[in-house]
TrEMBL record:
Lineage: Eukaryota, Viridiplantae, Streptophyta, Embryophyta, Tracheophyta
Biased composition (Basic residues): 214-223, 241-258
Keyword Cell membrane found: no
Disordered, as annotated region: 212-308
Gene Ontology, cellular component aspect: nucleolus
Domain annotation BING4 C-terminal: ranges: 126-206
UniProt subcellular location: Nucleus, Nucleolus
Segments annotated as WD repeats: 47-88
Annotated protein name in UniProt: BING4 C-terminal domain-containing protein
Amino acid sequence: MVGNYRTGLGRSDVLQVNPFNGVVAVGHSGGTVSIWKPTSAAPLVKMLCHRGPVTALAFHPNGHLMATAGMERKIKLWDLRKFEVLQTLPGHAKTLDFSQKGLLATSTGSFVQILGDLSGSQNYSRYMGHSMAKGYQIQKAVFRPYEDVLGIGHSMGWSSILIPGSGEPNFDSWVANPFETSKQRREKEVRSLLDKLPPETIMLDPTKIGAVRPTRKKEKRTKQEREDDMETAVAAAKSLPFKKKTKGRNKPTKKVKKRQEGIEKAKRPFLEQQMKEEELSKKKRKRISDENPLPKSLQRFARNKAAT
């Protein structure tokens, strides 16, 4: 077990995994949807999606679109990049599922409705509808990958219907091979276990994995801070103890001279840094003055200003 956490948000009847980044979304009885990763004791995101209990939840294959259904008979489509509602549709849904090509199946009672983004503008409308025999209560509707088939589980068994354009026609055999043999299936299982990412790497934005953190600019220290650091270094050099030497080599003048050398050595890096900063400021002022030359009658004022 990787983690065991209490949500504190009421009963949870709906749970889905986002295929894009591996986070888990949980729908609660208070209308809230919380998003979790395995190594976090607190939810990454809490969204108040509905006024009543959440009855169904589904993710688009691209991972950026989420569909939720509530008891107040509304289906909402959410943009997970901005966490805002894209579209609100009327209707109750007990189960939701996205196909590989983006069709959305909703079902309640004995009726299945397919919604499609026909215009390509994330504006879903009715695409198809199917009614089961009277008295059949649909529990789950799931699209079959790489085929135009919708599987429907109901109170009297299992059925399937054809939904044109729902499956991905061009599959990548390195990602998923519908015609794989038993040997290929065993090798794929071993390979997936070897390539599995640890739970710590699951996050909302998976593009951060393998990225380099940008270097931050060093904050420029104030003059007072530099002076305080120099005084601390000088005090440390003054309090440095000396070894007792043989007679004739332990004169007070030599001690004073050596202590003075230690103080100068402690001051040197601070003075060099100050000189570098002064040179850079002079070059910057000179560059600005070269870019914006003043009239001859005003140049003497510019020289006086630079000198101060």
